[in-house]
Amino acid sequence: MPVKIPDDLPAAEILESENIFIMSETRAKNQDIRPMKVLILNLMPNKIETETQLLRLLGNTPLQVDVDLLRIHDKSSKHTSIEHMNNFYRDFDDIRHKNYDGLMITGAPLGLLPFEEVSYWAHICDIIDWSQKHVTSVLFLCWAAHAALYHLYGLHRQVLDKKRSGVYLHQRTLQHYPLLRGFDDEFFAPHSRHAEMDLNELKAHSELNVLTESKDAGAYMVLSTDNRNLFVMGHPEYQKVTLDEEYKRDVLEGIDPEQPQNYYRDNDPTQEPIARWYGHGSLLISNWLNYYVYQLTPYDLNKISDITPSEHDKA
Question: Against a cut of 0.90, is the pTM above it?
Answer without folding.
Answer: no
